[in-house]
Amino acid sequence: MRTALVIGTGLIGTSAALALSGRGVRVHLTDHDPSRAQTAAALGAGTDEAPGGPVDLAVVAVPPARVAETVAGAQRRGLARGYLDVASVKGGPRRELEALGGDLTAYLGTHPMAGRERSGPLAATADLFEGRPWVLTPTAATETEVLNLALELVSLCRAVPVVMDADAHDRAVALVSHTPQLLSSLVAARLEDADETAVRLCGQGIRDVTRIAASDPAMWIDILSANPGPVAEILSAVASDLEETVRALRALESADEEKRHGGAAGIEDVLRRGNTGRERVPGKHGAAPAAYESVTVLIGDQPGQLAKIFADAGRAGVNIEDVRIEHATGQQAGLIQLMVEPAAAPGLTAALREKGWSIRQ
Hints:
CATH class of the largest domain: Alpha Beta
Number of helices: 13
Strand content: 15-25%
Number of strands: 11
Distance between the termini: 54 Å
CATH architecture of the largest domain: 3-Layer(aba) Sandwich
Oligomer: single chain
């Protein structure tokens, strides 16, 4: 691939353009808002000048509802040898493209499983896709050349290709991406009118659950409008679980011991099912999640503190598998949880204590 055209210079389009430009591909940028393409060009993502002829690959990075018309229009103008989109829904746009008379042989629907809470070209990074799954949904009609161009794009972006059926992809992302977004927003919405005293008690749990609730509503309306059925089915199942959980909690208020026992059993059931489901989430390098042990350390909110604790752990010969930080409310300090292999925890604890760190049990 020597040349590419990125149509749509938001977070995903600009990030792909930055990755391609950084690896020697000449990238042309266009957007319905010329100022966004100019911003992306200023960031080093390519040029906002129109290509002089057909490019090798056109990357369509527009909302799902606009994918089909954008691809069809680009094909009519002969802008590229191959066309792919990076929208988060795959089945509907492909059927719409077919209905518009688009050339399915030169088109491939894809979806990089990466993103951020922020949007727009200024949020883009060249390493956004590194190590992340990038779904490809070829069909029997897809030309080999187009599939190879898509695989080259994924490789240049340092992502991991995953081949799926388009409709299976849409059901999967409804479960692992679209429903979590709505549930996060539903929990965060409870905070809108909450008493300030309650909000000041927010800890890491509520921060974890509501992190993605900061996402752009307009973007998510576009996504959910393109995949409403699968998301509604999952939310319906969640609603049934919620109803059962509410009944179980009400039973715990009862003076009847048998009802309280049944309520506790109902709560335990959903918690245990949650444990089982969480264990299926891939861990480090895609393997089954390991049972790490946490070494919790009090850390000041000053420059260099994180670097110092990581250096001290490195000198102790301990590999940090994961990190979590819980900031203290109203204080210039917090707790950092260093996740390590269980066998390494005692040695790390002793080494950090020797260096003067305050270990919390």
